[in-house]
Amino acid sequence: MAAAQGAFSLREVLAAFQACVTEQREVLLGPYLCGWRGLVRFLNGLGAIFSFISKDAVAKIQIMESYCGGERREEYRTLQAMVRYELSGGLVDLQRRSAHPDSGCRTVLRLHRALKWLQLFLEGLRTARQDASTSAICTDSYNASLAAYHPWVVRKAAAVAFCALPSRDAFLEVMNVGGPEEAVEMLGDALPHIRDVYGITQELYEQHRLLDLP
Ligand code: 1PW
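^ thats the input. predicted complex w/ 1PW below
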């Protein structure tokens, strides 16, 4: 089962987020999107109820993949290059979505905010007791991060989906890395890399005042 096609393994995601950060502390978009693809597979493994959540992430990943595979792919090799290119070319809508509704900058910002949720959720999962409620962990991490950016209707739908989350052990099993202890250990290895990628992105966006892009 662990090798089933399309099955999520936390190992892949670990490797992708680890491979994101270059020696110059730049974030490579290729592995970043690869990591996101892994996360989406993970979400899909949690059941159909999560498909509305993964659908938007997939749409955003696709937008970014088309930039990364497009004519201007050199400008989209790293997050830093993308920000430079889009800002200097006036390719980002700063006040409201109009001429450039799907800029790389605003699209990555949505994924970046969602990554915070994931980070908090996995941290909660890692440190929780065996009998802890994953729904509560998920709700708390969502409320502490992404919820602030979502309208009421999305928050309600998310709350319903969270109720359907399996137990902590079942959850760790979906991660496909072995027993619960192994999964917890793997989370301990993976999280610093996710935190690192999040931190670099946050700093970059702060510097360029991009954290509130419409
Ligand atoms: C179990 C923990 C998993 C964390 C995975 C993170 C996936 C997050 C996707 C949440 C999507 C909720 C529904 C979509 C909302 C969009 O309106 C919103 N997108 C996101 C990613 O927050 C904003 O995008 P928009 O409307 O400005 O294009």
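The pocket of 1PW is lined by residues 39, 43, 53, 56-57, 110, 113-114, 117-118, 121, 138, 146, 149-150, 154 (CB under 6 Å).
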